[in-house]
Every structure is written in structure tokens, then in C-alpha cells.
Design goal:
The protein has helices spanning 13-24, 74-86, 128-143, 162-176, 208-220, 255-263, 282-285, 318-332, and strands at 3-8, 29-36, 44-47, 50-53, 55-56, 67-70, 90-93, 122-124, 146-155, 195-196, 227-234, 241-249, 268-270, 291-298, 307-314. By secondary structure, it is an alpha/beta fold. It has two domains: 3-126 and 321-332, 3-Layer(aba) Sandwich (Rossmann fold); 130-315, Dihydrodipicolinate Reductase, domain 2 (2-Layer Sandwich), CATH 3.30.360. The active site is at 128 (acyl-thioester intermediate), 241 (proton acceptor).
Length: 333
């Protein structure tokens, strides 16, 4: 069944990825509206061999639209949510605006696709790091409940948008040329450096990005008691996030059992070549749909073989954002 779609924030990094993925997956649409802020009004974009004109997003933009893919920031999502619903469309939102709203499904299609049917006009896309972690954790949790997760993320510049990616490239050139690095998109130098994630700190000392992993995982898994702690770090990688994941299970599980479970898990590619010390790298995941998993090993500090360590890499712009939203949209048509 074809539908009429709108892409809000089409000129941004995720918006551009929406267009690539919709074309690659031959998404069934009858019409598409290219929406952005006033400063992009009139810009020309080519999609599936046809030229489109970017329109300024207004309350009237969603008339006749069935699905609106949003990547325009939380404030814009909140601003236009009522207009989308009034038009009878469904908003699939990449921002954090509605993720923890109890009436809004928070969906990773490989994990909880059944939640989509409960939407009331809005479906939320989880945070990129949450998606990348949960795609491989879910099949393990299904087989043997996870009691505790300890996650450290190594997040690429892509997570902060195109301006941050441009800044990483520019800073790298400047530093190699002996010039001082200029910081605009990030508060600190990102080239040849790393720093704790630059999201707002909460009263408990964790930053907002770290708490997203905690709260979103509990909601997606429908498991409010699962113990989770997280440390999020920005690293000088252009695209694709990496994560070190330590899992404590309810019952014993071996590294070989984990490899077997993940070898058939949807959205997962196992890259676990111990002989050559070859495990996932961001360049493996860059531009790919799957989450790459490797360096699978027993956590010998946890008794009774109940602990496992994983290393994962996933493309933040694709599976961590645009692809996940398009997969949700595919289940709506």
C-alpha cells in the first residue's frame, strides 16, 4: 500500500539519510513533502530521479500526509505534534521529545514491533546508542534474562549532526597544519581528543545521554527493574558509534552460546575473529544497516558463567536514527 509521506528536517544529516534509505528499500509512497526551516525554503533536492523543492514547515504542511518522518529537533517535534495528529498523520520522531511519554510507543522493530499498534499519532525512535545496544542484547535477553548491564559508549561526531562532522574534519586539518582548533559545534576539541558526552548533567552526576540508555532500555524491554549503568564518551570518529557492553545474566551462558544466538539474530552481524584479533570497528559499520558484534568473551569476574562481554559498532545515522524510523514506517503501511 502506498502512502503520502513528509520528511521534517530533510536537509540535515538524518534527513538526507531518510532519502537514501527510502530509495534503497523502495519504500511505497505516492507523494513526498520535503520540509525544513525557513532558511532552507526553496532549496532543490533530487530524490529517485525527480527534483523536489524544500518547503518551510508549517501547521498546514501535513494536510494529506499519512506518515511524517521527523528529525528536526525536540522543540520542533513538540511544536508540530498536534498539527501532525490533526491532519490524521502518524509522526515517527527521532528526537527525545516523546520517548518517555507513557502514551507514546518507543520502538526498535527487532525488539518490540508489537508496540507500534498502540500509537496515538506519535511513535518515538529511541536514542542512537540505545538502539545500537539493544539490537544484539534483545535476543540474548529473550533466551536468558539480563539482570544487569554496564555500558560504555564511544560516540562518533555524527551523533551531533552535520555541523559536528564538519568540525571534526576542519579541526583535523587545522591541527595537522599547525593551526589552533576552533570549537563551535562541540564545547571542546574533538579532533585527536575525547571527552565525556556534552549533554546536560543531571543531579545524580550522570549526563542526559547516559540516563537515556537507562530509562529507554527499561521502557523498550518492559523491564523496569533491570539494573543499568552507562558512561558516554565522544570520540574523534566521523560516523558509527562503538559500545563496550558487559551483561550479567540470570542463568549461566557461554560465549559460544552467545555467538550462536547472535548468528541468526535480525539486524546483527557477528565479526568475532579471535585468531586474527579482528573485531568490529566503526569503519565496518559505516553505511551499513546491521549492528556489528564481536570480542565476545566470558566475564570471569562474575561467578557461574553468568557474565558476558561484547563489543559492538553501529552506524548512528542509519540504524541509530533514519533506518530505525523507516523500519517503523514500513510496518505502518
Amino acid at each position: 500500500m502506498s502512502c503520502n509521506i513528509a520528511i521534517a528536517g530533510v536537509t540535515g544529516a538524518v534527513g538526507q539519510e531518510f532519502l537514501r534509505i527510502l530509495e534503497e528499500r523502495d519504500f511505497p509512497f505516492s507523494s513526498v513533502k520535503m520540509l525544513a526551516s525557513a532558511r532552507s525554503h526553496g532549496k532543490k533536492l533530487t530524490f529517485k530521479g525527480r527534483e523536489y523543492t524544500v518547503e518551510e514547515m508549517t501547521d498546514k504542511s501535513f494536510d494529506g500526509v499519512d506518515i511524517a518522518l521527523f528529525s528536526a529537533g525536540g522543540s520542533r517535534s513538540r511544536e508540530f505534534a498536534d498539527a501532525v495528529k490533526k491532519a490524521g498523520a502518524v509522526m515517527v520522531d527521532n528526537s527525545s521529545a516523546f520517548r518517555m511519554d507513557p502514551d507514546t510507543p518507543l520502538v526498535v522493530p527487532e525488539v518490540n514491533p508489537e508496540a507500534i499498534k498502540d500509537h496515538k499519532g506519535i511513535i518515538a525512535n529511541p536514542n542512537c546508542s540505545t538502539i545500537i545496544a539493544l539490537v544484539p542484547i534483545w535476543p540474548l535477553h529473550n533466551a536468558n534474562p539480563v539482570k544487569r548491564m554496564v555500558v560504555s559508549t564511544y560516540q562518533a561526531a555524527s551523533g551531533a549532526g552535520q555541523a559536528a562532522m564538519d568540525e571534526l574534519a576542519l579541526q583535523s586539518k587545522d591541527i595537522l597544519a599547525g593551526r589552533e582548533a576552533r570549537c563551535e559545534a562541540f564545547p571542546y576539541q574533538i579532533a585527536f581528543n575525547l571527552f565525556c558526552h556534552n549533554s546536560d548533567l543531571k543531579p545524580n552526576g550522570y549526563n542526559e545521554e547516559e540516563m537515556k540508555m537507562v530509562n529507554e532500555t527499561r521502557k523498550i524491554f518492559s523491564c523496569p527493574d533491570i539494573a543499568i549503568t552507562c558512561t558516554c564518551v565522544r570520540v574523534p570518529v566521523m560516523r558509527a558509534h562503538s559500545e563496550s557492553i558487559n551483561l550479567e545474566f540470570d542463568s549461566p551462558i557461554t560465549a559460544d552460546e552467545v555467538r550462536e544466538l547472535l548468528s541468526t539474530a535480525p539486524g546483527v552481524t557477528v565479526l568475532d575473529d579471535r585468531e586474527n584479533n579482528r573485531f568490529p570497528m566503526p569503519i565496518d559499520a559505516d553505511g551499513k544497516d546491521d549492528v556489528y558484534v564481536g570480542h565476545i568473551r566470558q566475564d570471569e569476574s562474575i561467578p557461574d558463567n553468568r557474565g558476558i562481554n561484547l563489543w559492538v559498532c553501529g552506524d548512528q545515522i542509519r540504524k541509530g536514527a533514519a533506518l530505525n524510523a523507516v523500519q517503523i514506517a514500513e510496518r505502518l503501511v
